[in-house]
Design a protein that fits this description.
With 417 residues, the chain is of the alpha+beta class. The chain has three domains: 4-99, Phosphorylase Kinase, domain 1, CATH 3.30.200; 105-377, Orthogonal Bundle (Transferase(Phosphotransferase), domain 1); 384-417. It is built from eleven helices and 16 strands. The protein has helices at 52-67, 107-111, 113-116, 121-140, 204-219, 240-246, 276-288, 300-310, 332-340, 363-366, 383-416; strands spanning 4-7, 13-16, 29-33, 40-45, 84-87, 93-99, 105-106, 153-155, 161-163, 171-173, 176-178, 229-230, 262-263, 313-315, 323-325, 376-377. The strands form six sheets. A four-stranded antiparallel β-sheet has the order 3-4-6-5, with helices on one face. A three-stranded antiparallel β-sheet has the order 7-8-9. Strands 15-14-16 form a three-stranded mixed β-sheet, with no helix packed on it. Strand 8 and strand 9 (161-163) form a beta hairpin. Helix 4 (121-140) runs antiparallel to helix 5 (204-219) and helix 5 crosses helix 7. The longest helix is centred in the last third of the chain and has 34 residues, at 383-416. The protein binds zinc ion (ZN).
């Protein structure tokens, strides 16, 4: 295989190989193996898509990220930070070097049906928690993710998150502002819907909105908080983007001021099946923070409620594939299955839990990992079976009492005689 040579800032030669995977080709660039540099990969920009001016701006941004000596460049970072810039033999900027993520899968794929049904609910909660930790790390160093979407997030077999495409981050360095110039409507707050992403478009608050949408989809069977089901099939359906703009969500009835005939999607359990602390964070983002963006909770506020949820999960007595919050009286996934008749997202906890690799150090590992905790199995019988058992017991009881009464009457008659 012919390896194309590229040159780092200090003259080091990197031999760039094939794409790291089929999905490693994006709109602006592609990610390639470096066979002679294990643990590293190269992002090469697409000169056929980006203009010379775009490449020039990207070069300045990546070089600033390298010069800035950010803590996000450390090995403990949750970001695939640039480690070197890449130039061709003419000295033209072409891309950058970053660390590779072992067995990393894009979160967008993890949310898709095929991989989601292989994930446990426990794993999805751990991913949500680790995502909040990663976003908190980025914000604590004054960066904004901007184009925040599952396509830009890699998740490994331990549910750890790595943010990729960090060259789209928004930040300032030495009085120069480096904007993020891309966004995807599904993850954008109302103020950025139908926008052209001009300078200063993004903020920590816009990231907080995207974080809440992604967590919602992780916990609620890949349901977007602003999609709904029409309870009147003749009524006109509004688009998801229109719902985001006007703040209409079937999960928060107070937002349906016009009394529209809408309900929660059948593939999604009710919000009440999550702890109130988690529900409140969704409400603060999507209702209180719909217009007042400063009311959207910071990433750090999600961590404890999600960790607590991960430690208070139980397994359904009917189907061990169903895992849910212990305070819910009957299995929400059984209800979803009955209502929607679609495959659920959850597989037995033994199917994916990794056991043979030491987890990377991060805040979540200092306590109990939400991904490795012991889930309680519910001891009670399913509701229908319980009623059946109860009625049987009552029947047997009545039969015994009846027999005693009969014997008593028989004795009275015999003794009377
Ligand atoms: Zn169930």
């Amino acid at each position: 295989m012919y390896l194309l040579p590229y040159y780092g800032k200090s003259g080091q030669i990197y031999y760039v190989g094939s794409l790291v995977s089929k999905e490693a080709k994006g709109g602006e660039g592609s990610v390639h193996c470096l066979p002679q540099n294990p643990g590293l990969v190269a992002k090469i920009y697409r000169c056929d898509v980006l203009s010379a001016n775009d490449i020039k701006q990207r070069a300045r941004k990546v070089e600033s990220m390298l010069t800035k000596n950010s803590p996000l460049a450390s090995s403990d970072s949750f970001c695939a930070w640039p480690q070197d810039a890449l130039y061709d033999s003419d000295g033209v900027f072409c891309g950058y070097i970053m660390r590779s993520v072992e067995q990393g899968v894009k979160l967008s794929r993890k949310l898709s049906d095929k991989l989601r049904i292989q994930s446990t609910q426990e794993e999805l909660i751990a991913i949500a928690c680790n995502l909040a930790i990663a976003v908190e790390q980025v914000h604590s160093h004054s960066y904004v993710i901007g184009d925040f979407k599952p396509d830009n997030l890699l998740v490994d077999s331990h549910a750890f998150i790595t943010i990729i495409d960090v060259d789209s981050f928004q930040f300032e360095f030495k009085d120069e502002f480096f904007p993020c110039k891309a966004g995807t409507p599904e993850w954008l707050p109302p103020e950025l819907q139908e926008t052209s992403f001009a300078c200063h478009s993004f903020s920590a608050e816009t990231d907080r909105w995207a974080l809440a949408v992604i967590i919602f989809k992780l916990l609620m069977n890949d349901t977007h908080p602003f999609t709904h089901r029409m309870t009147n099939p003749l009524a006109e359906r509004s688009s998801q983007s229109e719902n985001v703009i006007c703040g209409l969500s079937s999960h928060f009835p107070e937002t349906n001021r016009a009394g529209l005939a809408i309900g929660e999607p059948l593939t999604c359990p009710p919000l009440s099946t999550l702890p109130p602390e988690v529900c409140n964070l969704f409400r603060q983002t999507f209702v209180d923070g719909h217009i007042a963006d400063l009311r959207r909770p910071a990433a750090v506020e999600w961590i404890t409620p999600l960790q607590q949820l991960s430690q208070r999960l139980i397994v359904c007595s009917v189907d061990v594939k169903h895992i849910y919050w212990e305070q819910v009286t009957s299995c929400p996934w059984c209800a979803v299955k009955r209502a929607s008749r679609v495959p659920l997202t959850i597989e037995p906890p033994t199917s994916t839990a990794p056991k043979n690799k030491a987890p990377r150090q991060n805040p979540i590992q200092q306590g109990t990992s939400p991904y490795f905790n012991d889930i309680q199995y519910r001891n009670t019988q399913p509701k229908d079976a319980s009623i059946e058992t109860f009625l049987t017991a009552v029947g047997i009881g009545l039969a015994i009492v009846g027999a005693f009464v009969l014997i008593f009457l028989l004795l009275v008659v015999l003794l009377g005689v």
